[in-house]
Write a structure and sequence with these properties.
By secondary structure, the chain is mostly helical. The protein is elongated, with a radius of gyration of 19 Å. The protein starts with a helix and ends in a 5-residue tail after the last helix.
Length: about 220
């Protein structure tokens, strides 16, 4: 586990290299981001953005999704994968938003996770990006890179979330996710990491372990 000085150095490098970053899922309001995040499970953000471009023109409100035909919605989101479960969850989620939350996306994590298809990851995306509540989103990039760097040894996303909450200052909880996504796409690519140009190499446990004497 990294000490406080090492953690702050990693965060400073991420700030310097990637600066302020924003959510990669296109949206204009809270419910659009909620649906886009549900669709993003096991799917790339780029693919989701392609799908939601037409989807949000066809379904223009929570009510539209709540009343959608299951088979038709499945067809609309087919290319995001796992479309049977996603379509069912989106409809159930929007129905509950109308019946239990007056058509508003809640910010409380327990209320968010009571919605169909919404786990802690999706809830924290909403809390951080919509409501500005310090929240750590543990996606595949955060899980993998946090393990490589040495911020955590856990594989369980919930454990990783709470461990990161212990070592990261709150003012970086939101930005850490989007900066790490950028890093995972540009340099620390899962199948072909470019360690030779990585600004985090000298602080990365995995790199140090594989390259003794390199730093």
């Amino acid at each position: 586990m990294k000490n406080k000085e090492q953690v702050n150095e990693v965060l400073k490098i991420l700030d310097d290299v990637y600066g302020p970053t924003k959510c990669y899922l296109n949206h204009q309001n809270p419910w659009q981001l909620l649906i886009a995040t549900i669709l993003s499970a096991q799917c790339t953000d780029d693919r989701v953005n392609i799908v939601t471009k037409d989807l949000f023109e066809k379904y223009t409100s929570i009510k539209d999704f709540a009343e959608a035909s299951l088979s038709e919605l499945e067809n609309d989101i087919r290319s995001t994968g796992f479309y049977h479960n996603k379509a069912k969850n989106i409809i159930l989620c929007c129905q509950k938003l109308l019946t239990d939350f007056n058509g508003e996306v809640p910010q409380d994590i327990d209320k968010l996770t009571s919605l169909a298809g919404v786990g802690r990851k999706t809830a924290n995306v909403i809390r951080g990006n919509i409501y500005g509540i310090p929240s750590i989103v543990v996606d595949t990039h955060v899980k993998r890179i946090s393990n490589l760097i040495g911020f955590t040894k856990s594989q369980d996303p919930v454990k990783i979330e709470f461990e990161l909450m212990e070592i990261l200052p709150q003012d970086h909880w939101i930005s850490y996710n989007t900066q790490v996504i950028a890093h995972g796409r540009k340099i620390c690519i899962a199948r072909r990491p470019q360690c030779h140009i990585c600004p985090l190499s000298r602080l990365c446990d995995d790199y140090i372990r594989k390259s003794p004497g390199a730093v």
